[in-house]
Amino acid sequence: MTDSPAISVLDREGLDALVKTLTTEGRTVVGPTVRDGAVVLSELASADQLPFGWGTRVEAGHYRLIPREDGAAFAHTSGPQSWKTFLHPQREKLWSADRGADGQLSLTAEQPEQPSYAFLGVRPCDLRAIAIQDRVLTGGHYQDSGYRERRSGAFLIAAECTEPGATCFCVSMGGGPAADNGFDLALTEVVDEAGHRFLVRVGSEAGAEVLSHVPRCQADVETQTAARRAVDAARDRMGRAMPPVSLRTLMGQSLEADRWDDVADRCLTCGNCTMVCPTCFCTTTEEVTDLTGDHAERWQRWDSCFDLDFSYLHGGPVRSSPRSRYRQWLTHKLSTWYDQFDSSGCVGCGRCVTWCPVGIDITEEASALHDELEARLRLQEQAEQQERTEKVQ
Amino acid sequence: MTAPMLAVFKLASCDGCQLTLLDCEDELLALAGQVEIAHFLEASSNTRPGPYDLTLVEGSITTSADAEHIRKIRAQSRFLVTIGACATAGGIQALRNFADVEEFRRTVYARPDYIDTLATSTPVSAHVDVDFELRGCPIDRGQLLEVITAFLTGRKPDVPNHSVCFECKRRGTVCVTVAHGTPCLGPVTHAGCGAICPAYGRGCYGCFGPSGSVNLPALIPLLHRDGMDDRDTERFLHTFNAATFAEIEEKM
Ligand code: SF4
Ligand code: SF4
Ligand code: SF4
């Protein structure tokens, strides 16, 4: 272990030095940056590319960048990508096959050298989303080796939330704006009269090692207090919340709800929600052949339960109606995910709400399903009561 | 084994889709090694008579001669693939389906009696059986090669039916509707182009026609919100795939 104190403070130069250190170690540093009117995730050559001075104003189906006077770098909410863009890329070659002159087939598994990533600015909800994808893609019998390799080599620098957006609801999903574990380093940005700085906590030996190369100060009480206050305040400023019930049970009891017809009328079945969701992991495989037919490749690419072909068996898709596809997405996310992977599939990042073109809101749908179920149970109870009264009479 | 015979025919169209075949520069030699290009007037006036193993047809049916021609082409073709919005949906010329062609004939032409045309522009599938329809205005080079390669190896082509939004997100484009308030037909449009327009900050024009799962009533309010009135919306939907979008609108 190095001499890093457990908690220290970086200034902007310190952040620059952190990126330089990681780059020098041969890592590909990925972090938020402004492109095409949004904060996207992209390879960073230096900390200067971070979205200093940019915030976001989001609503269901709506996203705008807004300038911030305080120059903060991590005061924006989730953009259209998540870290799965890098850990679980949209298209990946699995193997290739060649037919030799003698007609014999030879197979080559694709084992490229995977980049060694450093993710800068991972939100606490996204730390939890990465943990979920870890369980899905490396936790069971069928492991995604590419994912495993990229993930095990990745260095995670969390950025705690101080500016939750109007579509955020991580608190009601059992999370929150604080980063508790699963990181190598965790930053909390503080901008006040005393300056622009980042409180840094060490979460692993690798984190301590990297930090030992970065100029920093020991954390002062004021910065620690300001950081804690900002994160605590964020906890109370969530834009949305899930209904405070067991969503797992709710979904299980809502399979025949009328609400699915209502949402199906509004849903474009465009698939955006699943593509932006940091936990959605579904893929399909495509077989590619060349014109001679002597060379074939198998590629894995992102798929979505909103795609008709996703449930295509011989003769047609099993989930042909938009109702059945939306229901599949929400029920899997909030309920059957527990059966498969022992947790919810939603961390409350709000991406699916923001990036749905028509602004379908998972929290609003869950609330409506909850209301419908309550009403149904009330009616049932009344009917039973009446029956009992009639019997007595 | 002799190489399969490939033929390319055109009906009412601009030639852009068959040009896509010539545009396969890097693969053209390999292709010529696998098939015998027996009929492809855009490339060579040297033609061989059918029957053909794989026939690509560009263009829609707008005259009785076209209608006759496509039946002959079908009769000579083992596997018939239509390429492009004209052949699969009637093309931009299907705008006539919503107008009075007689009036056009009288107003536009000095000698209307020289003009022999049908009242509608229809896709090939309205006249003969089609084995595969490749969408786009124009078609995508990669998808064309995929269809030909799949035919040669006897497998189903990998041409997804989903929306342009899938391609947009996969390529990492920022959604122009959500982030800029730009009207976009991507959510109802068939993938295939690789989501080119949104990548350049413009809304999707719907060149590939309706996707496999279209909800126009859900999209139209967004187009209105983003500044299109009823007339704009109609024009937006009435371009290269006017007839197919109109069919969906009718059911609304
Ligand atoms: S919920 Fe929204 S983003 Fe998801 S498929 Fe429906 S319209 Fe698209
Ligand atoms: S379901 Fe929506 S809010 Fe939940 S993790 Fe996925 S994108 Fe985020
Ligand atoms: S820009 Fe258009 S095609 Fe792309 S995600 Fe948005 S609505 Fe869909």
UniProtKB/TrEMBL annotation, chain A:
Q: Name one Pfam family in it.
A: Fer4_22
* Keyword field: Coiled coil, Iron, Iron-sulfur, Metal-binding
Origin: domain of life = Bacteria
The residue ranges of the 4Fe-4S ferredoxin-type domain are 256-287, 337-365
In its UniProt record, a GO molecular function of this protein is: iron-sulfur cluster binding
Record flagged with keyword Metal-binding:
yes
Coiled-coil-forming residues are 363-390
User: Does Iron count among this protein's keywords?
Assistant: yes
| Name listed for the protein in its UniProt record | 4Fe-4S ferredoxin
Question: Which organism's genome codes for this protein?
Answer: Streptomyces albiflavescens
Automatic annotation (TrEMBL), chain B:
Q: Where is the NADH:ubiquinone oxidoreductase-like 20kDa subunit domain?
A: 14-150
> Which keywords are on file for this protein?
Oxidoreductase
Coiled-coil stretches are none
- Asked if the keyword Oxidoreductase belongs to this entry, the reply reads yes
Q: Give this protein's Gene Ontology molecular function annotations.
A: iron-sulfur cluster binding; oxidoreductase activity
Against PANTHER family, the record matches this protein to: COENZYME F420-REDUCING HYDROGENASE, GAMMA SUBUNIT (PTHR42845), CYTOSOLIC NIFE-HYDROGENASE, DELTA SUBUNIT (PTHR42845:SF3)
Q: What is this protein called?
A: Oxidoreductase
Supply the source organism for this entry. Answer: Streptomyces albiflavescens
